[in-house]
Structures are given as C-alpha cells and as structure tokens.
Amino acid sequence: MDLSILKQALIEGDDRQVVDLTRRALDEDHSAQTILNDALISGMQKVGELFEQGEYFVPELLLAARAMQSAMEVLRSPLAASDYQPMGKVVMGTVQGDLHDIGKKLVAMMLEGSGFEVIDLGTDVPPERFVAAVEESGAQLVGLSALLTTTLPAMEATVGALREAELPTQVRVMIGGAPLTSTFAQDVGADGYAPDASSAVALARRLVARD
Ligand code: B1M
Fold it and tell me: Which of 25, 34, 38, 124 is deepest in the core (most CB within 10 A)?
C-alpha cells in the first residue's frame, strides 16, 4: 500500500478510512514508526499548512486531529512493543491554557515503548497539578509540552513551580513542542529540550541516567 493514501485520508479528516488504512499498512508490514512519520505526522504538517493558508479552519483541524488520535490507538501496541526495559517514571502534560494533545501523546507513547511508566495529566494542566503529581508518584522526570507561543509563559511558570516545590527527590524537567528551542529551555531552567518524539526518548534516558 502506498502510504500517501493514508496521508491523504488524514488530511481529509476521514476517521474510519484512516483507521482502516493504518491497520492495512501494519498488515502489509510497514513499521509503526514509518506509518507514523511518513503518513500521519507529515499529513498533520500539511493540515497545519492548509490552516496557515486559510484553506482549513478549526473544524478541519479537529477532524484531522481526531483521525490522528484514532490511528495512534491502532499504533499504540506496535510502538510500545518495540524495546521494553523499565527506565523510570515520567509525569507528562500540556501546559496551562494549551489544548494541543497529539504531540504530547505521541511522546508519551514512545516513552512507554522505551520502558518508562508515564503518568499523562492531559492538556491545560496548571503548574500545581504537575507538582502534586510528582509528589504523589515520586516521578524522576517531568515532560512539558506546549504548541502555542501564548502558553510559553505557562511553561516557564510550571518549571518555576517544580523548582520551588520541596520535592522528596530531585526532578528533571524536559520540554518540547513546535515553538520551543533549547535556548528557551535554558532560559526557563529546564534540563533539556527535544524537538520530536524519538529525541524525547533519548533525552529522557540521558536525564534519568544522570541520577
Ligand atoms: Co492548533 N495551532 N490551535 N489546534 N494546531 C497550531 C499549533 C498552529 C501552529 C497552527 C498554525 O497557525 N499554523 C497554531 C499555533 C501558532 C502559535 O502559537 N505559534 C495553532 C493555533 C493558533 C490554534 C488555536 C489558537 C486556533 C483557534 O482557535 N483560533 C487553538 C488554540 C486552542 C488551545 O490550545 N487553547 C488551536 C486549536 C487546535 C485544535 C483543538 C483544533 C487541534 C488540536 C487537537 C488536539 O491536539 N487534540 C489543533 C491542531 C491539530 C493544530 C495543528 C494543525 C497540528 C498540531 C499537531 O497535532 N501536530 C498545528 C499546526 C502544526 O503543528 N503544523 C496547530 C502533530 C504532532 C505530532 O506534532 O504537536 O508538534 P507536535 O508534536 C511534536 C513535536 O512538537 C514534539 O514531538 C512531537 C512528535 O514529533 N513535542 C515534544 C511535542 N511535545 C513534546 C514534549 C516533549 C518533547 C517533544 O518533551 C516533554
């Protein structure tokens, strides 16, 4: 199967078609990683471009996002089965004011697939919920995601709250999301920045190994 058919179905936000084609691609021995990168992520990139060009509006974004999430459910176990070794506990979430979920879920799935236990707090998460989740779980790592430039101050506030909290163990903080950079990570006092899901796994491994 040509993965561009799946990419096109995602761009059109055709949920059922996307799920069927994702299953078919797996049956035809495309790896979960290839399906994700070559069809789904590149399809979402195209959706973003269409939005920027004024051809798509929020309803089209929502349809594509729903289709992407359904496909990710299909890919969850093959991605997670890739390489299992218990590594540590991570609290993950999208920062306050930001509802973008897909990239963060993808990072969470890849971390799970690499042997991390992930506590996913969802989206629009206030700083104090991150702090409480670390206190309750004893996680060594926190992963913060943001897709909006307007929510970068919330990310800074969250890193600040984690640094100020009296936590039983020293927590490492990694951040990611399209508007971020490693310079921003340094400026707000995070321990690292990852531009995509696979580098997030490599970074998480490095940060946990430092303990
Ligand atoms: Co929104 N949106 N959106 N949107 N949306 C963007 C982000 C935008 C770039 C579109 C555009 O204008 N071109 C733009 C932001 C501009 C900016 O601030 N710079 C934007 C806007 C403006 C908005 C609204 C304000 C629109 C409106 O209402 N007028 C609104 C805001 C709502 C809110 O959050 N308060 C909004 C709403 C939405 C929907 C709800 C409709 C939907 C989200 C649905 C959902 O997530 N459940 C949506 C979508 C789908 C997008 C685009 C099209 C796609 C995002 C996505 O899922 N990408 C996006 C345009 C684009 O990105 N091209 C856009 C696929 C995903 C796999 O990639 O999330 O980048 P990404 O994650 C990557 C990396 O960033 C990284 O790894 C991931 C995998 O490789 N990463 C991490 C992410 N988190 C990480 C954490 C890490 C490490 C790496 O460590 C912890």
Answer: 25
Q: Kindly state the helix (H) or strand (E) to which residue 116 belongs, with its residue range.
A: strand 116-120
CB atoms under 10 Å from CB of 86, counted, come to: 8
pLDDT digits (tens, 9 = 90+) for 102-158: 989 888 877 876 668 899 999 999 999 999 999 999 999 999 999 999 999 999 999
Q: Identify the DSSP state of 41.
A: I
Give the predicted TM-score (pTM) of the model.
Answer: 0.84
Give the separation between CA 190 and CA 210, rounded to whole angstroms: 15
User: From CA 174, how far away is CA 191, in angstroms rounded?
Assistant: 6
CA pair distance 88, 103, nearest whole angstrom: 21
Cα(65)–Cα(175) distance, integer angstroms: 22
Phi, psi of 149 (to 5 degrees): -65, -30
Question: Ligand 1: which of 18, 79, 100, 102 to mutate, judged by most atoms within 8 Å of the beta carbon?
Answer: 100
Helix (H, G, I), strand (E, B) or coil at 65: helix
- Please tell me the distance between residue 59's alpha carbon and the centre of ligand 1 in angstroms: 14
CB 173 within 8 A of CB 144: yes
